[in-house]
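Re: that chain you flagged

S.,

Sorry for the slow reply, it's been a week of failed gels. I finally had a moment to sit down with the sequence you sent. For the record, here it is as I used it:
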Amino acid sequence: MKRFTRRAALLGAGGLAGWGLSGLFRADLPTYAGTDRIVAPTGDTILNDASGLSATPVHKHLTLAEGDQTLIDVIRREMAQARAAGHPLNVGAARHSMGGQAIPREGTALTFANAGIELDSAAQTYRAHAGARWSDVIAALDPAGWSPKVMQSNNDFGLAATYSVNAHGWPVPFGPMGSTVRSLRMVLPSGDLVTCSASENADLFNLGMGGYGLIGVIVDMEIEMTRNTRLVPSFEVMPTTDYAARFKAAIQDPAVTMAYGRLNVERETFFQNALLVTYRETEDQSDLPAAAGSGWMAHAASRIYRAQLGNETFKAFRWWNETTLGPALGGGEVTRNSLINEPVVTLDDRNPDRTDILHEYFVGFDAFDSFVEACQQVIPASYQEFLNVTLRYVAQDDQAVLSFAQVPRIAAVMSFSQELTQRAEADHKRLTRALIDRVVEIGGAYYLPYRPHARLDQLTRAYPSASAFAQAKRALDPNLVLRNNLWDQYLGQL
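Prediction finished late last night. Pasting the structure tokens below so you have them in one place:
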């Protein structure tokens, strides 16, 4: 592939002008000349992520499929070449992060393609190549009556990527997906192939869980599965002040296997009302239908979701739809696999002038009211369009070095629609920093895969073990071969 050049970027961006190569390396993102409009350079040696705001030059980009020892040989070769050239290397799958956490600047980017799944029903586990997507897992497990024990809320993501960002889902009462990994194999920066688990090379296992690919390149994984079941939902609407207690009671109910919550987003009554949705198994568990994909209701809901943009009436209508009409029309029985078999594209923006930006915050149950108050004071006063918050449960995580759940916590996943302008980017940075300050003050944490707006001191306050992680990484990888923007901007400064 050709090297990145300024001319290539100018042509690839459709006439972009008025900025130099340094534009990719500054906090200020490149814009059209004489405008505030942010544009993303494109080209064979430019990688971006889901934000559309992380255009990053790379030395080369390879897509690797499953190939047993051949795959391991390729990883070792690319690592050795990157180390010799002084280039970084990093691996990605779908690259749904939003701040370059899976992109090695001026380095070697490896993308793992989808791959097959092998079931072990006796052990209640499945083995998968690191690049397999959750859609692949559901497709393999569902015909045999099994389901992923924990997965991210959408099926587009890669398995190793989920482990590497320590992602969680909404089955209860579990912690992050990494807690369901029985073992994995990874190639270390030294080139050594090691097997890691909670009992074998546990230090590497705990560093890699939420380690953002900075510890080793994962080759394959053995992961726990559970029975697919037929479920029926219950819907409860309540004042937000009642939510934490009701949610905790639901989590502690052994009959509840899936649960999430929502808060209303109209500005006048922002976060004053809550919806709790819980799922329980039905008596009849025979003849389960095949896992479905996005149904008409999901697509209709996505259009209503998008209609909220700049429209308080539609925000109120969506809340009525979720709390009244939706339960009446779509409150029937559904299988566990159908619930989780949903791609991100269902909520695709399709607006070239805007981008979706996610936040996620983790707070204890007793701090939830303080968190809501902070959001009410910070978010409506911003320039951002706030579209949604989903509330999930995360059990205590004592494994990951960069754990965000030292105690059981409520996870608040927030969705904003941001204009692609410098003004909006600056405002979003201010908003993010204000929220992080408030969350850290009440003992919470923020999630690391999103926009790199936090200050370094905010990261170290939210993740007290960050310095220990950085020291362990330097000892394991003295040449700093495995790098990404999370390391370059944050952890590498510790």
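What I noticed first: Residues 422-441 form the longest helix (20 residues).

Talk soon,
D.
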